TrEMBL record, chains A, B:
<dbReference type="InterPro" id="IPR036388">
    <property type="entry name" value="WH-like_DNA-bd_sf"/>
</dbReference>
<dbReference type="InterPro" id="IPR002577">
    <property type="entry name" value="HTH_HxlR"/>
</dbReference>
<keyword id="KW-0238">DNA-binding</keyword>
<protein>
    <submittedName>
        <fullName>Transcriptional regulator</fullName>
    </submittedName>
</protein>
<dbReference type="GO" id="GO:0003677">
    <property type="term" value="F:DNA binding"/>
</dbReference>
<keyword id="KW-0805">Transcription regulation</keyword>
<dbReference type="Pfam" id="PF01638">
    <property type="entry name" value="HxlR"/>
</dbReference>
<dbReference type="InterPro" id="IPR036390">
    <property type="entry name" value="WH_DNA-bd_sf"/>
</dbReference>
<keyword id="KW-0804">Transcription</keyword>
<feature type="domain" description="HTH hxlR-type">
    <location>
        <begin position="16"/>
        <end position="116"/>
    </location>
</feature>
Length: 124, 124
DNA sequence: CCGGATCCCCAGGGATACTG
DNA sequence: CAGTATCCCTGGGGATCCGG
């Protein structure tokens, strides 16, 4: 029976899949933007801005969208009009991630009370 | 009839569950340490250090362990000996999170090739 | 052996102004 | 409208030293 144990050398940043996932989605906005597009399928820049909540800066929204696009989670359609019109749409790859995030979210929702209680106890 | 749409004000950091989860686990080490303890159940400080891979500083390991403990994901047993001995063990709450992280990890493993290909294409 | 206390550095991210 | 370009600042995290 093979060991399931993961060798130490495999836990570094390049080989450890958990780290890979965190490095990619540990930032402030990626998941949020992805979920918004998962819900609405297709949105324009300003619409995403509204949906996310207006506390994201234009700069960070742009940066986040570019990264999601580079990874293949969303794709971008540019309409050569004036004023410009750009639509963002979630890809199949992006869609495939959404349920996992949703599961985590559900876990968080149902366990957050316990966590908060634990934090309270810990403070004392 | 109330909108199903999530109001902007509900997406802020305190009310949005996704953000809550990210704020808690978006840091560099929490999930990694939790997974290590999920596998081994019970470990001493230095053992965790070894398992995580020695690229975590003592300070950050301490900080991470305190946060996990405060949230109720692990608990700590101090043996009043000299030299000191401290054991960390995952709780049921902690265990309940592990499968979700594993699912995300599996997703990452199977989709990382596609992501990397997408990144290559995007560079050009 | 465990981990607290300090110092320091840098990258993520905000605010603002500007443009095709 | 959908960005780009700058400037700036905060805090996460590393290195090091010390102490029970």
């Amino acid at each position: 029976m093979m060991e399931k144990k993961i060798k130490k050398s495999e836990w570094d940043i390049t080989n450890c899949p958990v780290r890979t996932v965190l490095d990619r989605f540990g930032d402030k906005w990626s998941i949020l933007v992805l979920l918004v597009l998962g819900e609405k399928q297709k949105l324009r820049f300003n619409e995403i801005n509204k949906e996310v909540g207006s506390d994201i800066s234009q700069k960070m929204l742009t940066v986040t969208l570019r990264k999601l696009e580079a990874d293949g989670f969303i794709f971008r359609t540019i309409y050569p009009e004036i004023p410009p019109k750009v639509e963002y749409e979630i890809t199949d790859l992006g869609k495939s991630l959404v349920p996992h995030v949703d599961n985590l979210t559900k876990w968080a929702v149902s366990n957050m009370p316990a966590i908060k209680r634990s934090r309270e106890r810990f403070k004392k």
